[in-house]
Amino acid sequence: MTHDSPAPDLPERGFGRLDWAVAIAMMLLWGFNIIAMKSAVDSAGALPGAFLRQAIVAVVCLPFLRIVPGRMRLIGVLGVLSGGLFYVAVGLSLQVSTNVSALAIAGQLGVPFSLILAVIFLKEKIGIPRLIGIILALFGVVLLVFDPKVAGEMPAIAISACGSLIWAIATLIQRNLGGIGVLNISGWLGLIGSLVILPFALLLEPNGMAMLPNLSMETYAWTIYAALGSSIGGHGAMVWLLQRHSVSTVSPLTIPTPVISVAFATWWFGTPLTALMIAGGLIALLGVSIVAIRNAQRSRMLAEARLMKEGTRS
Questions:
Q1: What does the pLDDT look like over 26-79, one tens digit per residue?
Q2: 215 CB contacts (<8 Å, ≥6 apart)?
Q3: DSSP per residue, 118-168
Q4: What is the pTM for the complete model shown?
């Protein structure tokens, strides 16, 4: 196992101050990222901004890039989806949105989508609690449709939902890429993603691509934050925690992220937060929490069963 690769599910142990500090930093990095991405997209354009972000990730991670024998095809597919098309969808949704809080709520669909895909393609069985969680998550987002303050955000929410579906497909692929260093994976996602986004950006936003060398320092700073803070720092923190604690302990720590994103977006942009948005967000968050916690419990049960089986053999 490499020094920065995720570990298999580990026995439970105490969650110390350093662990909490890293977990809180991870949540804040990801939560604040919606501000950085919206600001970068507004200045650089959706596709040029996405290309620049992934290019920065590729350059920073270039020294850690390694060929992974037998798994490069999966990494290539993951790079197209998670490194390229996902950020195309994110950039376009941010570009047409004026209330990014609604996007933060719609972005929660990734968790139930990944579970639905696992049921369809991996024949994974889910119980009543996770089914209720999926229904609640979907219902919470659907509630936004009936909010007059969010009526103009429907195109952005629809694109964001497509992005969540792409992310969910990518998570199924990532299940087969355990044990690969996070900087190696990030480097491939940045390299392949930037190559995927490049033709779209040149075709659809040629002026924006031509202006990339002349962007303001503020726009560069926002993009660098999104690349280093969220893509590398946030995911690096997640991997560091997974090296020390079980998946069942770490996975639920991502639940507060959309709440933090909404709070930051409301504070930074002054966007309205209506009663229906709050209700929809809380219902969706409850549904995602049920799915995430039940997924974590299932991972722990499988890990314990595996350990018992290995103990019986020895």
A1: 889 988 998 999 999 999 999 999 999 999 999 999 999 999 998 899 999 999
A2: 43, 44
A3: HHHHS-----HHHHHHHHHHHHHHHHGGG-GGGGGGHHHHHHHHHHHHHHH
A4: 0.79
More confident residue, 98 or 2: 98
**Sequence-separated contacts (24+) of 66-70 with Cβ below 8 Å:** 66/181, 66/184, 68/180, 68/184
Distance CA 212, CA 142 (A): 37
- What does 166-190 look like in DSSP terms, one character per residue? HHHHHHHHHTT-TTS-HHHHHHHHH
Q: What angle do CA 228, 232, 238 make, to 5 degrees?
A: 140
SS3 8: coil
Phi, psi (rounded to 5 degrees) for 99: -125, 90
Rounded to 10 degrees, the C-alpha dihedral 128/105/208/190 comes to -40
The CA distance from 175 to 60, in Å, is 25
Residue 245 burial class via C-beta count within 10 angstroms: exposed 0-12, middle 13-18, buried 19 and up: buried
CA count, 13 A, side-chain hemisphere, 310: 6
In the block, tokens 């934050």 appear at 225
